[in-house]
User: Fold this.
Amino acid sequence: MNGKIEQLIMNGKYQEAWIAIAEYEKEYPFDADMDTYRVLCLNNAGEHQMALQYAYRAVQNQPYVADAHCNCGYAFELCENYFQAYEQYAVAKELALGGNPIGVPIEKIEESMQQILNIIMNRAQLGETDDIETDKRWINYIANMDRINWGIRKPVFHDGTNMIAQKYNDYPGLPEIFAGITGMQSAYHMICNKLYVNTIMEETDLQRTYAMGSNIEIESDTECFVPLIMDRPGRLCVQTEKKQAEIEYNSPLQYINYRVPKGKVLISSEDREFRLGEMVPIIHDRKRKPLILNIFVDGLSQTVLENHMEMLMPNTYRFFREGMICTNAHTAGDWTFPSIASIVTGQTMANHKMLHSKLLRKIDAETPILFEYFKNAGYNTTKIGGNWRIAPNYGYARGMNRVHYQHMYEGFPIEKVVSEVEEQIHTMRETDQFIWMEIGELHLIADEYNVAPLQGQFMIWENDNTKGKINSVKQEYDETKRKYYLKQIEYVDRKLAGLYQYIENNFEENEIVITLFADHGQGYLVRPEEEFLCDERTKIAFMTKGGGVSGKTEELISACDYTPIICKLAGIEYNYENTDASLPVVYGGEKEREFTVTESIHVGDPYQILLNGRDFTFYLKGIEKVTSECRVPLDTYEVKLSDKNGNILHDKDKINYYTKWCLDHIGSCRIYNN
Assistant:
């Protein structure tokens, strides 16, 4: 029937098409193409504001479809929202240049973009603006994003793009980020004039700029830290209500947390401008925990830990045994990019749509994320690590006071991450802290990087040939890699031991919420006879300490539940609207999940989804391949219902129920050929 609607629109019969859309949606309510059809009908009727609402919803549901962005750009343009129109046209252009189909010549899009720039410039010259500061922010955002191809074809924090000493605008509604340096090696490179200006070779400190100039007055109700950065050494004059002093800033391109008293403080420099990050009040609030620490271990499979945690990770076991160890937690996706998005948004892959490995995007601005919950609750928030799939270009600087980042393989291994986390806890101990840290050492096994130290732990003949490095998601079962993986888990545990000890020495149980969790298992753990989305790939380590919850549970937990769990332990209210999250009973929830949801959405591969219940598993697998726009054809598919012992079940009612659930769930990504 959607073919009939398209024909009506092509023939200019918009009123008939509108009626046909309403009839079609009664049977296929999740077909995202209907939003595009509505846009075309409404624009023809002159209902541009209403058309814009549907056009914007279309790009949220189809973020990799160039035509959807082009239509949205046109809708913004008709409503005279020129900055937003430029953004949508630019995204459409980059998607098309990245290989995705588009119905409009790229030259036409570029012409529209230039026309919009001309309008913006003319309006600025004539002073026709309602908010000068907002316009300036948008102009800076557009200029910055044009420089990096809108972050769609350039993974700017791990492809060598010049980012240090540069402004970066992740969202137009937020202050710009300025990338400085940190760490001894980068400071030495700076002194020797050998500084690399990318975040692969240098340790980077990213903070938002809340004020810039050579003469800035600040005011605070409490004593606070004020991050300040300059591009070169210089003199600073600091004047308070009671005292005046001159100091030397001699750490170029490094943020220094100057401690200033409450009240008004004037900071000035005679010879150059400086930037101020966000002030951090030096205060503890009884409503908050002094320390919230999130320990993310990429690729830690629960199937490997199971009954062997005490042996493989003795330090981790001792630390968390008084907390809650969850043995039945499942990822929402089969690799880091979509899995982490589910962890911080509470949404499944079909809803957050962080899917494509080559054409990149960031989390929708309207979607609240974990970091913002704690930032809004008054925590001093920090992210430390080198996982390039959790970098600021994907939206993970939102809610962060500070992002300390360097590509892991070039200089941010676990030893350094742990050290930096401990130092952050110590230097900011007078504030209530939320810290997210990233450990990527287990990924080295799949990537076959630096396995030499592990090989020496076996007899020489035990080092069999591995099956070779391929995409980590698609790796086949490999006994040698499994052996190395176990040794690497032990290594990670040893490196975390000191951090656990530091926390125990400096905090009481009621002052902390600590979690250790993973994003997915490992492909090389999956035996040939097993399903692609089996426990070895989907079952993840998950444990918490603090918040008054302890024990061991087999309750079903999804990665989507992570943020509400942490919020609950910290006493922060969580908004479940537009999420797939649920609060487990062991953490205070009212009802256990019926099942968890794990999906596999890869361009060029068939779609797969697993519903994992207490006593069943249900698979639905597409036959056709996911398109370059991350759209899922499901005209044909296979289903399988099994009990927990792998026995096939033939309960037609349950099969029909779960099949419909899966098809409805993926509906906004699906291609309907009716």
